[in-house]
Design a protein that fits this description.
Strand order of the largest sheet: 1-2
Radius of gyration: 22 Å
Strand content: under 5%
Helix content: 40-55%
Length: about 325
Amino acid sequence: MSLAQERRIPAAVPFTYVYPGLDESDETEWQELVVKHLGVQDWMRLEVVDGENEYLGPRGSQSLLRRGLVFPAAAHLWADMFERTAGGLVLTGEGGDDVFLPKRASALVAGVRGRFRPGSPRREALWSLAPERVRRRRARGASMLDMPWLTDSARREFLSDALRDQVHEPLSLRGGLEVLCSARFRGAYGQTMTTIAAEYGSVVADPFWHPQFLASYSRHAPYFGYADRTEAMTAVFGRVLPGEVLSRASKARFNTAYFGRSTREFARDWNGTGVDSELVDVEKLRQAWLADLVPALVVLLLQQAWLAQQTGVPSADRGEEGRRAPQVA
């Protein structure tokens, strides 16, 4: 805000979704706290009702048929945002969790600070110093119970790939950020958002992923980074955001908003087609879709199965321009 005033350019206008009646998705208190603290005058708020923002609701279904599978899956639900910001610059908070949440050495930092007294994360600190093969074995053991919707062979293959970056993460903050920046999901996310924004004549920018921000952040941070998210957030935003925001421990959930009546009806009535049965346990996948807290990893499979039934294509819809959407399991 101060930069806009200094350069005499229009100030950024916050855009937020509001979910009436859904307490788990309600962030009004936090949003108002930030907006008031920054002295923002304009604020675009879009009220979402009647399943408008569920994965297989009218908006999500129409986008799926038009674009095919994309990552992130929720990008199909953001048409309203891009329509209201058409021709402009959309600044997102994407990457905030990845950048500010604890890294490999965070427990070590906290442990040293607490002189490894009882109550400090002594065990995690020691694990952070273990050889790569030991950390890989531990991570694999902790993860094998996850993703029950995958067959055993698919789960082993997935974990082998997924754990590679995790165990390769260096102890230094800079090294950890470099691993994050090279992750596959970063490129997929960027391509999706750039493509959809261009349809509306807009440009998307993710400041937390910008090389200059990451370079500055790692340069001014301690070599091993920070002990926790609050400490990291305070180091960067301590002068401009309220303390309550910096130390916030809660996080909104959108399971009810995204998995509404239409989406759950499809999950219940699904005939098991549209996914590879050699990789996926159909009934356990259905259970994951119908759970109170749906794992994010099953959403693309949901969209893929729905597309297969709508289009008659076994894997995925080709999208508006005839391109093949990426197949997921």
